[in-house]
Design goal:
With about 240 residues, the chain is of the alpha/beta class. The protein is built from eight helices and ten strands. A five-stranded mixed beta sheet has the order 3-2-1-4-5, sandwiched between helices. The chain has a three-stranded antiparallel beta sheet with strand order 6-7-10, with no helix packed on it. The longest helix has 14 residues. The protein is elongated, with a radius of gyration of 23 Å.
Protein backbone atom coordinates (compact mmCIF):
# COMPACT_ATOMS: atom_id res chain seq x y z
CA UNK A 1 0.00 0.00 0.00
CA UNK A 2 2.83 2.40 0.91
CA UNK A 3 4.52 1.61 -2.42
CA UNK A 4 1.32 2.37 -4.34
CA UNK A 5 0.84 5.66 -2.48
CA UNK A 6 4.41 6.67 -3.34
CA UNK A 7 3.84 5.69 -6.97
CA UNK A 8 0.66 7.77 -7.17
CA UNK A 9 2.39 10.79 -5.62
CA UNK A 10 5.10 10.60 -8.28
CA UNK A 11 2.46 11.05 -11.03
CA UNK A 12 4.13 8.56 -13.38
CA UNK A 13 3.58 8.54 -17.13
CA UNK A 14 2.78 5.15 -18.66
CA UNK A 15 2.55 4.12 -22.26
CA UNK A 16 -0.79 2.74 -23.39
CA UNK A 17 0.56 -0.82 -23.49
CA UNK A 18 1.83 -0.48 -19.94
CA UNK A 19 -1.56 0.78 -18.81
CA UNK A 20 -3.20 -2.33 -20.22
CA UNK A 21 -0.68 -4.56 -18.47
CA UNK A 22 -1.65 -2.97 -15.17
CA UNK A 23 -5.33 -3.48 -16.01
CA UNK A 24 -5.95 0.24 -16.43
CA UNK A 25 -8.55 1.83 -18.65
CA UNK A 26 -7.34 5.42 -18.45
CA UNK A 27 -8.96 7.43 -21.27
CA UNK A 28 -6.63 9.19 -23.67
CA UNK A 29 -6.95 12.37 -25.69
CA UNK A 30 -4.66 12.43 -28.74
CA UNK A 31 -3.97 15.60 -30.70
CA UNK A 32 -2.38 14.70 -34.03
CA UNK A 33 -0.36 17.53 -35.58
CA UNK A 34 0.65 16.83 -39.18
CA UNK A 35 3.30 19.20 -40.55
CA UNK A 36 2.40 19.65 -44.22
CA UNK A 37 5.03 22.20 -45.25
CA UNK A 38 6.84 21.91 -48.57
CA UNK A 39 9.91 20.18 -47.11
CA UNK A 40 7.72 17.21 -46.14
CA UNK A 41 7.43 16.48 -49.87
CA UNK A 42 10.99 15.11 -49.94
CA UNK A 43 10.98 11.59 -51.37
CA UNK A 44 12.58 8.83 -49.35
CA UNK A 45 14.60 5.98 -50.89
CA UNK A 46 11.40 3.88 -50.74
CA UNK A 47 9.72 6.28 -53.18
CA UNK A 48 7.18 7.63 -50.69
CA UNK A 49 7.32 11.24 -49.53
CA UNK A 50 7.97 12.11 -45.92
CA UNK A 51 4.41 13.39 -45.72
CA UNK A 52 2.97 10.08 -46.94
CA UNK A 53 5.03 8.21 -44.37
CA UNK A 54 3.97 10.64 -41.63
CA UNK A 55 0.29 10.11 -42.46
CA UNK A 56 0.77 6.33 -42.39
CA UNK A 57 2.38 6.62 -38.94
CA UNK A 58 -0.46 8.84 -37.73
CA UNK A 59 -3.07 6.35 -38.96
CA UNK A 60 -1.24 3.55 -37.12
CA UNK A 61 -2.11 5.32 -33.84
CA UNK A 62 -5.76 4.44 -34.38
CA UNK A 63 -4.93 0.74 -34.00
CA UNK A 64 -3.93 1.39 -30.38
CA UNK A 65 -7.01 3.35 -29.32
CA UNK A 66 -9.48 2.06 -26.75
CA UNK A 67 -13.18 2.73 -26.52
CA UNK A 68 -13.67 6.26 -25.20
CA UNK A 69 -10.32 7.60 -26.44
CA UNK A 70 -10.66 10.89 -28.30
CA UNK A 71 -8.72 12.29 -31.26
CA UNK A 72 -8.24 15.81 -32.64
CA UNK A 73 -6.36 16.55 -35.88
CA UNK A 74 -4.41 19.67 -36.88
CA UNK A 75 -2.29 20.49 -39.94
CA UNK A 76 0.72 22.75 -39.55
CA UNK A 77 2.53 24.73 -42.23
CA UNK A 78 3.08 28.41 -41.50
CA UNK A 79 -0.19 28.41 -39.52
CA UNK A 80 -2.52 25.99 -37.76
CA UNK A 81 -5.32 24.41 -39.79
CA UNK A 82 -7.88 22.77 -37.52
CA UNK A 83 -9.03 19.58 -39.24
CA UNK A 84 -10.86 18.15 -36.21
CA UNK A 85 -10.91 21.00 -33.70
CA UNK A 86 -12.51 19.17 -30.77
CA UNK A 87 -11.42 15.68 -29.68
CA UNK A 88 -13.91 13.11 -30.98
CA UNK A 89 -14.60 9.43 -30.41
CA UNK A 90 -15.66 9.20 -34.08
CA UNK A 91 -12.66 7.28 -35.46
CA UNK A 92 -13.97 7.45 -39.03
CA UNK A 93 -14.13 11.25 -38.93
CA UNK A 94 -10.64 11.56 -37.45
CA UNK A 95 -9.13 9.07 -39.91
CA UNK A 96 -10.66 10.92 -42.86
CA UNK A 97 -9.20 14.17 -41.50
CA UNK A 98 -5.71 12.62 -41.48
CA UNK A 99 -6.14 11.01 -44.90
CA UNK A 100 -7.54 14.21 -46.40
CA UNK A 101 -4.73 16.50 -45.22
CA UNK A 102 -2.73 17.63 -48.24
CA UNK A 103 0.84 18.81 -48.67
CA UNK A 104 1.12 22.60 -48.95
CA UNK A 105 3.76 24.92 -50.40
CA UNK A 106 4.19 26.80 -47.13
CA UNK A 107 7.15 26.96 -44.77
CA UNK A 108 7.24 25.37 -41.33
CA UNK A 109 6.28 27.19 -38.13
CA UNK A 110 5.25 24.82 -35.33
CA UNK A 111 4.37 27.53 -32.80
CA UNK A 112 0.76 28.14 -33.85
CA UNK A 113 -0.08 24.44 -34.16
CA UNK A 114 1.52 23.54 -30.82
CA UNK A 115 -0.26 26.45 -29.15
CA UNK A 116 -3.65 25.25 -30.48
CA UNK A 117 -2.83 21.63 -29.64
CA UNK A 118 -2.04 22.66 -26.07
CA UNK A 119 -5.41 24.44 -25.78
CA UNK A 120 -7.22 21.37 -27.11
CA UNK A 121 -5.42 19.11 -24.64
CA UNK A 122 -6.21 21.50 -21.76
CA UNK A 123 -9.95 21.34 -22.56
CA UNK A 124 -9.96 17.55 -22.74
CA UNK A 125 -11.56 15.41 -20.01
CA UNK A 126 -9.27 14.03 -17.36
CA UNK A 127 -6.95 11.26 -18.40
CA UNK A 128 -3.80 10.97 -20.51
CA UNK A 129 -3.28 13.88 -22.90
CA UNK A 130 -0.81 13.34 -25.74
CA UNK A 131 0.26 15.60 -28.61
CA UNK A 132 1.88 13.80 -31.56
CA UNK A 133 3.87 16.14 -33.83
CA UNK A 134 4.71 14.46 -37.15
CA UNK A 135 7.51 16.52 -38.70
CA UNK A 136 10.83 16.46 -40.53
CA UNK A 137 12.04 18.70 -37.68
CA UNK A 138 13.21 21.63 -39.79
CA UNK A 139 15.21 24.00 -37.59
CA UNK A 140 13.32 27.02 -38.93
CA UNK A 141 10.04 25.45 -37.81
CA UNK A 142 11.10 25.80 -34.16
CA UNK A 143 12.29 29.41 -34.53
CA UNK A 144 9.16 31.13 -33.15
CA UNK A 145 8.69 28.60 -30.35
CA UNK A 146 12.30 29.01 -29.24
CA UNK A 147 12.26 32.80 -29.52
CA UNK A 148 8.93 33.15 -27.65
CA UNK A 149 8.51 29.94 -25.61
CA UNK A 150 5.95 31.49 -23.24
CA UNK A 151 3.59 32.07 -26.16
CA UNK A 152 3.47 28.31 -26.80
CA UNK A 153 4.26 26.60 -23.50
CA UNK A 154 2.02 28.85 -21.44
CA UNK A 155 0.42 28.47 -18.00
CA UNK A 156 -2.30 26.10 -19.27
CA UNK A 157 0.35 23.86 -20.86
CA UNK A 158 2.37 23.78 -17.64
CA UNK A 159 -0.70 23.00 -15.54
CA UNK A 160 -2.03 20.19 -17.73
CA UNK A 161 1.41 18.87 -18.78
CA UNK A 162 0.42 17.11 -22.00
CA UNK A 163 2.94 14.61 -23.33
CA UNK A 164 4.61 15.96 -26.48
CA UNK A 165 5.79 13.15 -28.78
CA UNK A 166 7.83 14.22 -31.82
CA UNK A 167 7.76 11.67 -34.66
CA UNK A 168 10.14 12.04 -37.60
CA UNK A 169 9.23 9.95 -40.67
CA UNK A 170 12.83 9.18 -41.65
CA UNK A 171 16.47 9.88 -40.95
CA UNK A 172 17.30 11.06 -44.47
CA UNK A 173 19.54 14.13 -44.49
CA UNK A 174 17.95 16.68 -46.82
CA UNK A 175 19.70 19.58 -48.49
CA UNK A 176 19.08 22.80 -46.59
CA UNK A 177 18.58 25.08 -49.58
CA UNK A 178 16.00 27.65 -50.54
CA UNK A 179 15.01 30.25 -53.11
CA UNK A 180 16.44 33.44 -51.64
CA UNK A 181 15.26 35.91 -54.25
CA UNK A 182 13.48 36.15 -57.61
CA UNK A 183 13.89 39.20 -59.84
CA UNK A 184 12.08 39.78 -63.13
CA UNK A 185 13.75 41.92 -65.76
CA UNK A 186 10.56 42.10 -67.83
CA UNK A 187 8.43 44.99 -66.46
CA UNK A 188 5.08 43.49 -67.57
CA UNK A 189 3.86 40.29 -69.19
CA UNK A 190 1.58 39.80 -72.20
CA UNK A 191 0.90 36.79 -74.38
CA UNK A 192 3.79 35.91 -76.65
CA UNK A 193 6.34 38.01 -74.77
CA UNK A 194 9.71 36.70 -73.64
CA UNK A 195 9.96 36.86 -69.86
CA UNK A 196 13.46 37.11 -68.38
CA UNK A 197 14.56 36.93 -64.78
CA UNK A 198 17.01 35.62 -62.21
CA UNK A 199 16.48 33.32 -59.23
CA UNK A 200 18.99 33.27 -56.37
CA UNK A 201 19.40 29.90 -54.64
CA UNK A 202 21.15 29.74 -51.25
CA UNK A 203 22.80 26.56 -49.95
CA UNK A 204 23.05 26.36 -46.16
CA UNK A 205 24.07 22.70 -46.22
CA UNK A 206 27.56 21.54 -45.23
CA UNK A 207 27.73 19.68 -48.56
CA UNK A 208 27.66 20.91 -52.17
CA UNK A 209 24.18 21.34 -53.66
CA UNK A 210 23.27 19.56 -56.89
CA UNK A 211 19.64 20.28 -57.67
CA UNK A 212 17.18 21.46 -60.27
CA UNK A 213 15.44 24.85 -60.33
CA UNK A 214 11.92 24.69 -61.75
CA UNK A 215 10.01 27.79 -62.86
CA UNK A 216 6.24 27.54 -63.26
CA UNK A 217 3.97 30.05 -64.98
CA UNK A 218 0.43 29.50 -63.77
CA UNK A 219 0.17 25.71 -63.60
CA UNK A 220 2.63 25.14 -66.45
CA UNK A 221 6.30 24.22 -65.98
CA UNK A 222 8.16 26.54 -68.34
CA UNK A 223 11.84 26.35 -67.32
CA UNK A 224 14.20 23.94 -65.60
CA UNK A 225 17.80 24.87 -64.81
CA UNK A 226 20.54 22.92 -63.01
CA UNK A 227 21.79 24.36 -59.72
CA UNK A 228 25.34 23.84 -58.46
CA UNK A 229 26.21 25.64 -55.21
CA UNK A 230 29.11 25.24 -52.80
CA UNK A 231 28.45 24.84 -49.06
CA UNK A 232 27.29 28.14 -47.56
CA UNK A 233 27.14 29.84 -50.96
CA UNK A 234 24.39 31.44 -53.03
CA UNK A 235 24.17 31.32 -56.83
CA UNK A 236 22.09 33.32 -59.32
CA UNK A 237 20.33 31.30 -62.03
CA UNK A 238 19.10 33.26 -65.10
CA UNK A 239 15.96 32.05 -66.86
CA UNK A 240 13.64 33.04 -69.70
CA UNK A 241 10.47 31.72 -71.29
CA UNK A 242 7.65 32.66 -73.67
CA UNK A 243 4.47 33.78 -71.94
Amino acid sequence: LFALVALAAARPVMLARSVRIFGGEIPRTLVIVLVNSMSMGLREPSGATRFETAKACALALFDDLKQGDRVAVTASGDRAEMRVAEPTIDRTLARKAVEGTQLSQNRSDFAAALREAGKIAARAPRGIRQIFLFTDNQETGWRTALAQPASVFDTAWKQEQPQLVIVTPDQVEASNAFIQDVRLQTPFVAGGMTVRGTATVANLSPAPLHDLLTVTFGAERVVQRPVEAAPGAAVSIPFEFQA
